[in-house]
Amino acid sequence: MASAQPIVIYPPAEDGGRRVRADTRFLGMAYGLLDVAEFLSLAGIEEADPEYVRQSGLIEWRGGGPDEWGH
After folding, report:
1. pTM, to two decimals
2. % helix, strand, coil for the chain, step of 5
3. Integer CA distances (angstroms), 10 to 26, 29, in order
4. What is the CA radius of gyration of the chain?
5. What CA–CA distance (Å, rounded) separates 1 from 4?
6. Is residue 14 within 8 Å of 25, Cβ to Cβ?
7. Longest dimension (CA), the chain
C-alpha cells in the first residue's frame, strides 16, 4: 500500500467496532489499536504496531481518537 493513501478510522459503532479504510479499500472492523495495526500490516505498512497507530499522521480519526472505542 502506498503511504500517500489516506487511512480513515470511522466513529465507533454500537458494538464498539470502528471501520478502517485505506483510500477506497475497506480493511476491516477494528475493536482496538492492535486490530488497526494488523489491518495496516496486512495492507503493506510493515512498521504498523499499536504505538504507530496511535501516533501516525497518516491516520485520520473520525468520531474520537485512538482511545475511543465505545462500549
Report:
1. 0.88
2. 25, 25, 55
3. 11, 10
4. 11
5. 9
6. no
7. 33
